[in-house]
Specification:
The chain is α/β, with parallel strands linked by helices. It has eight helices and 15 strands.
Amino acid sequence: MEIYEELLRLKKEGRASAVATIVECSGSSPQKEGSKMLVRDDGTTVGTLGGGCLEAEVVQAALMVMKDERTMTMPFELTERQGGLVCGGKVLVYVEPIIPDPVLVILGAGHVGKALAKAARFSGFRVTVCDDRPEHANRENIPDAHEIVVHDFADIFEGLLIPEHAYIVVATRGHNHDLEAVKASLRTKARYIGLLGSRRKKALLFKALDAEGFSPEEAGRVHIPVGLPINSVTPEEIAISIMAQVIQKRREHAASRVGGPSCSRLSEEDGADKTASSAR
């Protein structure tokens, strides 16, 4: 019960976690089928799979699946000496990431921002809309946003917690506001930053960012023009093109895989350890 209570708490806070479960075991093993361990995004755990190198490697794998948002199955052959004993069993561990709803922050509550908030919420994102104009940034104008913030763009993120898995789209009402919003966005660790504008606007923006001391690598984080090229014209069409690109970026992360577990080692009678591959 403690694992599930902690899992719900983490998700409510917008934090990722992973649940590792022993789904198969044979021979001698420190824990039995059904044993679970929760791994938080900082590597701390609740519950146990038996400790030792198996548990340590599952923690590392759990951090990877949180990042890649994909499950992983890990086989272990417990033939390494642990505490002076040889377990001699085999264990299969299933690691499942528990990812909070993706976050989209929209800087600008104009026509595109309003349409984008609706498309993003429909797509399963948690939506925050920010603008410095209270007559635009309000519940009546943006009914689909989970959170609405009225603040200047230059320091908009000083009071907002932006997770690394967040996506930011800048769609303000003018070039100067765009620049301030992009500069603020680049100071976050957001996974994606998009800016509504033309290729000419991109050249002007990059020149301005260079003058502000941002490196080409930092400026390169900004996708401009934002959205997939579908010849969109209306705010609703533009919103669809933006969400299509955001979803594309979200799903394109390649799955990482953990190599052969170090627990899968053979111990010779003379005490010299050799890997299973070298023993064959």
